[in-house]
Amino acid sequence: MKDKRNLSLVMDFYELTMSQCYFNDNKDKEVVFDLFYRKNPDDGGYCVFAGLEQVVDYVSNLHFEKEDIDYLRSLNQFSEDFLEYLSTIRFTGDIYAIPEGTPVFPHEPLVRVKAPIIEAQLVETALLLAINHQTLIATKSRRIVQASEGRAVMEFGARRAHNFDAAILGARAAYIAGCAGSATTYSGKEFGVPVLGTMAHSFIQSFDTEYDAFMYYAKTYPDACTLLIDTYSTLKSGIVNAIKVAKDYLEPNGYRLKGVRIDSGDMSYLSKKVRKMLDEAGMKDCKIVVSNSLDEYVIESLIHQQGAKIDSFGVGENLICSKNSPVFGGVYKMVALEKDGHMIPKIKISDNVEKVTNPGMKNLNRIMDKETGMAIADLLTLEDEVIDTTQDLTIYHPMSRWKYKVIPANTYTVRDMLVPIFKDGKLVYDLPSLEEIRAYSEKELATIWDEIKRFVYPQEYYVDLSEKLLNLKLEMLKKYK
Q1: CA nearest 259: which of 208, 316, 221, 205?
Q2: Pairing state of beta strands 30-37 and 330-339?
Q3: What is the pLDDT of residue 2?
Q4: Residue 41, CA distances (Å) to 132, 293, 323, 347, 375 in order
Q5: Homologous superfamily of domain range 198-310
Q6: If DSSP codes are grouped into helix, strand and coil, which group holds residue 1?
Q7: Are residues 468 and 382 in contact, defined by beta-carbon separation less than 8 angstroms?
Q8: Which terminus of the chain has a lower count of CB atoms within 10 Å, N or C?
């Protein structure tokens, strides 16, 4: 989707005040930033990367219009020379990123930006908001899809989303992660997300009787009829009238009732009772859909602990807002700065160990087991390092030399996870279709061990450093401490 708005000013104001200072000093010096995150939402074991297409759209369209410059001038904080510079600015740097749909892990670069310092600084906020939001929703959606164990999950959250873009792009992210479709029609138009939905309780209330409402809908959509059965009483009237409409109209005319939906009450108890009534009526092919404040934990319990007879799930606010873990903590940190024609590594130090950054311009390598095809670890190396798969590979904990793992020679393969998106400001990446991203994500997730994907106390996936990178990091820590 090409955003028709010019969103170039969607940035924290300090991006501009810093850029004024850079302009006064050395606006052309190059810098490298890594975009990464520190902790998986929901205490999970992984995330699903999403939002790259919107990053491409923003960076490709980065420019300031006359009214933008006029507004900035009115703030009386920027020089005329700087405003003139902004009026002609375009992104001219390099961006490398992990492909959308990839399972990713804390402390590894999802996006790497190398550009003149003002350009690299100005894009920070937009990159973070695009990736933080969609990666959060894709990750939550994947957990819910995983819990459903092959049953369809439909995204029903638009009315609880945090405004229009959150609903539209949230539906996109949910589809990438495996949801069967969305109730958000605009996402269908813009992205090709399958759109789904039948009726609300108000539709049924608008008729004299529930039976009349069901019959009218069945005659309108005879080959795609799913009826909402909990407006009055699920068991005493809803399912009774649904079966009656199936027998009175659908079946005599060669159609079948596709499904019934329950939106309130005890989902487990009601689904079992409804399934029994449908089966006794010779309607074993009629599906049971449920919706009502569902998430991965409720779905897992319904299936495994309660033996609910449910065929698909409609999930709203807990998905579209990632309600119980609503923030994705992506950050954008400088890791190298040009000086005298050389890239000098930079590090951010903190008393909080998890906030210490990995310095230098780096590559991200996924180490795959040759025999199983499963991911062993992700390894950060400095840009000039080459991994020889015919040699033992030693990977190190990001802070401790004594914590390491040796992967025997000839037992592994290496994938370079960061692919070029922009080179010298030119888009060099062929954006895949949404269906291609979705299929790729499913394939990539299959390479991650189930122990890492479990909901409670998942096994931690290795994101380690090469010896050379670890030595650089420890030397810089020693220098600044």
Answers
A1: 221
A2: antiparallel
A3: 67
A4: 11, 19, 11, 25, 21
A5: Aldolase class I (3.20.20.70)
A6: coil
A7: yes
A8: C
The SS3 call for residue 304 is helix
Is residue 286 a contact partner of residue 256, using CB atoms and an 8 Å limit? yes
Closest by Cα among 44, 35, 368 to 177 = 44
DSSP calls for 246-303: IIIIIGGGT----EEEE-SS-HHHHHHHHHHHHHHTT-TT-EEEEESS--HHHHHIII
Q: List CB contacts of 478: < 8 A, sequence separation 6 or more.
A: none
In angstroms, rounded to a whole number, what is the distance separating the alpha carbons of residues 239 and 237?
Answer: 6
- What is the per-residue pLDDT across 35-74, written as a single tens digit (0 to 9) for each? 999 999 999 999 999 999 999 999 999 999 999 999 999 9
Residue 153's DSSP bridge partners are 313
| Under 8 Å between Cβ of 354 and 39 | yes
Q: 441 with 177: CB under 8 angstroms?
A: yes
| Ramachandran angles phi, psi of 140, nearest 5° | -60, -40
Chain segment 349-402, per-residue pLDDT in tens: 998 888 999 999 999 999 999 999 999 999 999 999 999 999 999 999 998 888
Residue 481 has pLDDT above 80, yes or no: no
Tokens standing for residue 199: 């009726």
- Domain layout of the chain by residue ranges: 13-137+326-480, 198-310
How far apart CA 116 and CA 131 sit, in angstroms, is: 22
CA distance 36 to 362: 13
Token pair 């969607």 is at which residue? Answer: 10
Beta bridge partners of 413: 368
CA gap 432, 377 in Å, rounded: 26
> Per-residue pLDDT averaged across 434-457, rounded?
98
In contact, 376 and 395? CB cutoff 8 Å: no
CA 163/CA 106 separation, integer angstroms: 28
1 pLDDT more than 70: no
- Phi and psi of 454, rounded to 5°? -70, 155
CATH topology of domain 13-137+326-480: nicotinate phosphoribosyltransferase (3.20.140)
What are the CA-CA distances from residue 305 to residues 91, 297, 300 (Å)?
54, 11, 8
Question: Nearest 5°: phi and psi at 73?
Answer: -60, -35
Long-range contacts formed by 471-474: CB under 8 A, 24+ apart = 472/345, 472/359, 472/360, 472/382, 473/347, 473/356, 473/358, 473/359, 473/398, 473/399, 474/401
